[in-house]
């Protein structure tokens, strides 16, 4: 289990590294931009807040949870027509976050207000106490 968790952490770190690329290659910033987030854990919940201004949460934002990962995806498509001129803008943003141990994936809730998406994940208390394992003698 620990090895699997370490692999997921490495994968999450890789995504974080990839999101830093736009600052190194500004000409690709629009295509590679990630969702800006704030995350924190409290005693009984894990919270992720994402800045997604000007989007319609019913059409433009998708939140998924699977295998210990939270995925926030957002897309925007906008068309403007003025006289004989038309212009369109589009883009897609994605962010993946590894959930902490004890996360209750079945009880995740999301709200959207004033351009901020807030995802709340309940965390089950976990035992931190160790125990001694009896050793059976086989002959």
From TrEMBL:
Question: Which InterPro entries is this protein grouped with?
Answer: A-crystallin/Hsp20_dom, HSP20-like_chaperone, Small_HSP
Residues forming the SHSP domain are 28-138
Q: Which CDD domains match?
A: ACD_sHsps-like (cd06464)
Q: Which family does it belong to?
A: Belongs to the small heat shock protein (HSP20) family.
> Protein name, please?
SHSP domain-containing protein
Source organism of the structure: Kribbella sancticallisti
């Amino acid at each position: 289990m620990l090895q699997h968790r370490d692999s997921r952490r490495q994968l999450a770190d890789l995504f974080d590294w990839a999101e830093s690329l736009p600052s190194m290659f500004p000409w690709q910033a629009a295509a590679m931009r990630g969702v800006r987030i704030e995350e924190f854990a409290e005693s009984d919940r894990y919270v992720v807040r994402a800045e997604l201004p000007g989007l319609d949460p019913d059409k433009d934002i998708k939140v998924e949870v699977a295998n210990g990962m939270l995925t926030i995806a957002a897309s925007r498509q906008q068309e403007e027509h003025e006289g004989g001129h038309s212009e369109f803008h589009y883009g897609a943003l994605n962010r993946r976050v590894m959930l902490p141990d004890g996360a209750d994936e079945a009880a995740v809730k999301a709200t959207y207000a004033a351009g901020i998406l807030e995802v709340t994940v309940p965390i089950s208390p976990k035992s931190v106490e160790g125990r001694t394992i009896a050793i059976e003698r086989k002959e």
